[in-house]
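Friendly challenge for the regulars: who can give me the structure tokens for this chain first? No prize, just bragging rights.
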Amino acid sequence: MSESAVDEATDVFMHHRELLFGLVYNMLGSVTDTEDVLQETWLSWSGRGTDGVDNPRAYLVRIAVNHALQRRASITRRRETYVGPWLPEPLVADDPGTDDPAVRTESVSLAMLVVLESLTPLERAVFVLHEVFGYAHTEIADIIERSPAAVRQLAHRARRHVHARRPRYRAHPRVRREATERFVQAALGGDIAELMEILAPDVTVWTDSGGNRKPAGLRPVRGRDKAVRLLHSYAQRDGARHRDLDLRYRRVNGDDAAVLFDGDSPYAVMVMDLSPDGDRISGIYVVTNPDKLTHVHKEEE
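First reply, four minutes later:
Bragging rights claimed.
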């Protein structure tokens, strides 16, 4: 391939990279695996070149989606031996006021990604392509090499499953920010009364450490009383350490969340999910596994 052809292929790929990242990340829930898939996509694309490709966007999407489907198998094997609850790698905006491409609305919330983990790889691909990125069923059929009828069936199953577990609701950003700040202050301060007020009766707490941070639960904690006891004991045990941590509010997968830093190193990402009425916190997702926070950087405020 000539140098000019390589430059053209590079320009086309970079023009569509943001779209490809969003598609693959929402299919995999892993920043590291997404970057690997994009590298594989680039190698496939650069080896092919642009000659004879009438629709480069469609061609690149098909390559990336199929590489992502292949990558799901290795992710599933890793999860089978994973220690404790598994959560997606959070996408954290370095600057809370910046329109970071990695955390735009095309990247669904952390809570939604947890629900998507219960779909089959094909159901998840169809859901992401259709519900998140607006691809028609006929377009998806070409991408995943299935009939339109099969795609419609996959879409129906995925949509029914997702909506049963996560009704259509999205809290106002101001409401989410206020709830996040109230929770963090109460949790780190060990304020039991405030935690009882802000947590929903059926709240669930996920703590994903991958066995790399102690202490951490081996399974999600369900119910307000258990959650409060867990958070209170954690605050009492590590209260001094918490005072040394640097708290920053960031956008995580498009939502307001809290990020704790130990010096310049990320210590934890905390994301709250609100109940449909927006009054209480129904889900708490805490990622402390250092392997999932390598792309999180501290920026001076």
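Residues 96-105 have pLDDT under 50 and may be disordered. The longest helix spans residues 3-28. Your move, everyone else.
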